[in-house]
Amino acid sequence: PRLITTWRAATPGTSGAVSATGSAGSIAGAVVIALVVAAGSAFGPFDAGLSTARLVGIVVLAGVAGSVVDSLLGATLQAGFVCPTCNRPNERVVHTCGTVSRHVRGVRWLSNDWVNLLAIAAAAVAGFVLSQ
Q1: pTM (predicted TM-score)
Q2: What is the dihedral of CA 35, 40, 43, 49, to 10 degrees?
Q3: Closest CA to 77 of 106, 103, 105, 102
Q4: Closest C-alpha to 113, from 83, 85, 88, 78
Q5: What strand order describes the sheet that includes 102-105?
Q6: What is the mean pLDDT of residues 66-91?
Q7: pLDDT digits (tens, 9 = 90+) for 10-40
Q8: Is 44 a residue whose pLDDT tops 70?
Q9: Cβ(124)–Cβ(62) under 8 Å?
Q10: Which helix (H) or strand (E) holds 8?
């Protein structure tokens, strides 16, 4: 894995780190969701005036955009903490060992949950913009 902002090597699981395997998984997930959307649109009252191929492409691109936003926010703004007892980096105010962690980077309130929500919102906006 490498940090999306600097391309420096990172430990697996580091917020903002990307890898070829993870990126392939992200794209594969977006393709699966796009195919489900396309299949569902054939059976339901969904009509955005888009061809199936364009619909699939939009959903895939929106999903990948959300994944990239997630990595960018994770690398730049997401809160990072260090446990003073274990000296381990983590993403929680209270580490799994029960010790209150020390804030070391990012926006203190911007947890991984908020990053996920913002990435989903970015994917939705990307899908909307691409469909216009």
Answers
A1: 0.87
A2: -80
A3: 106
A4: 78
A5: 89-90, 80-82, 102-105
A6: 94
A7: 988 889 999 999 999 999 999 999 999 888 8
A8: no
A9: yes
A10: none
Contact 82, 94 (CB under 8 A): no
Place of tokens 């903002």: 16
Helices 52-76 and 112-131 pack at an angle, to 10 degrees, of 150
Query: What 3-state DSSP class applies to 56?
Result: helix
> Does residue 53 surpass a pLDDT of 90?
no
CA separation, residue 28 to residues 11, 38, 64, 117 (Å): 23, 15, 10, 21
* SS3 state at 83: coil
Instruction: Name the amino acid, one letter, at 50.
Output: L
What is the separation, in whole angstroms, between the first and last Cα of the chain?
Answer: 35
> Percent of the chain having pLDDT more than 90?
73
Tell me the sheet residues that pair with 9.
Answer: 2
Closest listed residue to residue 37, CA positions, set 67, 22, 57, 23:
57
